[in-house]
Design a protein that fits this description.
single chain, about 80 residues, alpha+beta, 3 helices, globular
Length: about 80
Protein backbone atom coordinates (compact mmCIF):
# COMPACT_ATOMS: atom_id res chain seq x y z
CA UNK A 1 0.00 0.00 0.00
CA UNK A 2 2.82 2.40 0.83
CA UNK A 3 4.60 1.76 -2.48
CA UNK A 4 1.29 2.30 -4.26
CA UNK A 5 0.71 5.58 -2.43
CA UNK A 6 4.20 6.90 -3.11
CA UNK A 7 4.31 5.97 -6.79
CA UNK A 8 0.79 7.16 -7.65
CA UNK A 9 0.66 10.30 -5.54
CA UNK A 10 -2.96 9.64 -4.63
CA UNK A 11 -4.36 11.16 -1.47
CA UNK A 12 -5.38 8.93 1.42
CA UNK A 13 -9.10 9.32 0.73
CA UNK A 14 -8.59 8.56 -2.97
CA UNK A 15 -6.77 5.35 -2.03
CA UNK A 16 -9.55 4.42 0.41
CA UNK A 17 -12.17 4.99 -2.30
CA UNK A 18 -10.29 3.01 -4.96
CA UNK A 19 -12.26 0.01 -6.19
CA UNK A 20 -11.15 -2.91 -8.35
CA UNK A 21 -13.39 -1.61 -11.11
CA UNK A 22 -11.15 1.48 -11.23
CA UNK A 23 -7.99 -0.56 -11.80
CA UNK A 24 -7.20 -1.81 -15.32
CA UNK A 25 -4.26 -4.19 -15.20
CA UNK A 26 -4.76 -6.11 -18.45
CA UNK A 27 -4.24 -3.17 -20.82
CA UNK A 28 -0.90 -2.76 -22.65
CA UNK A 29 -0.28 0.15 -20.27
CA UNK A 30 -2.00 -0.52 -16.92
CA UNK A 31 -3.95 2.45 -15.58
CA UNK A 32 -6.31 3.76 -12.93
CA UNK A 33 -9.63 5.36 -13.72
CA UNK A 34 -10.55 7.61 -10.81
CA UNK A 35 -14.23 8.45 -10.52
CA UNK A 36 -15.10 12.15 -10.27
CA UNK A 37 -16.75 11.90 -6.87
CA UNK A 38 -13.76 10.00 -5.45
CA UNK A 39 -11.20 12.76 -6.11
CA UNK A 40 -10.53 15.98 -4.26
CA UNK A 41 -10.92 18.02 -7.47
CA UNK A 42 -14.23 16.25 -8.24
CA UNK A 43 -13.14 15.37 -11.76
CA UNK A 44 -12.53 11.98 -13.31
CA UNK A 45 -8.90 11.20 -14.06
CA UNK A 46 -7.19 8.41 -15.96
CA UNK A 47 -3.49 7.84 -15.53
CA UNK A 48 -0.96 5.12 -16.15
CA UNK A 49 0.65 3.20 -13.34
CA UNK A 50 4.16 1.80 -13.31
CA UNK A 51 4.58 -1.85 -14.36
CA UNK A 52 6.02 -2.68 -10.93
CA UNK A 53 2.93 -1.30 -9.22
CA UNK A 54 0.67 -3.16 -11.64
CA UNK A 55 2.53 -6.39 -10.82
CA UNK A 56 2.02 -5.79 -7.09
CA UNK A 57 -1.69 -5.16 -7.62
CA UNK A 58 -2.00 -8.36 -9.66
CA UNK A 59 -0.50 -10.27 -6.72
CA UNK A 60 -2.99 -8.90 -4.18
CA UNK A 61 -6.07 -8.90 -6.42
CA UNK A 62 -8.40 -11.75 -5.47
CA UNK A 63 -9.11 -14.43 -8.05
CA UNK A 64 -12.73 -13.25 -8.08
CA UNK A 65 -13.67 -9.69 -7.26
CA UNK A 66 -16.56 -7.33 -7.61
CA UNK A 67 -15.98 -3.99 -9.35
CA UNK A 68 -17.24 -2.20 -6.23
CA UNK A 69 -14.84 -4.06 -3.91
CA UNK A 70 -12.20 -1.87 -2.26
CA UNK A 71 -8.61 -2.43 -3.43
CA UNK A 72 -7.22 -1.85 0.06
CA UNK A 73 -9.22 -3.10 3.03
CA UNK A 74 -7.76 -0.37 5.24
CA UNK A 75 -5.48 2.59 4.76
CA UNK A 76 -3.31 3.57 7.75
Amino acid sequence: MYVFAITTGLRRQEIEDLQWGDVVLDAPTPFLHLRDYATKARRADIFAIKPEVAAMLREVRPARWEDEEQVFASVP
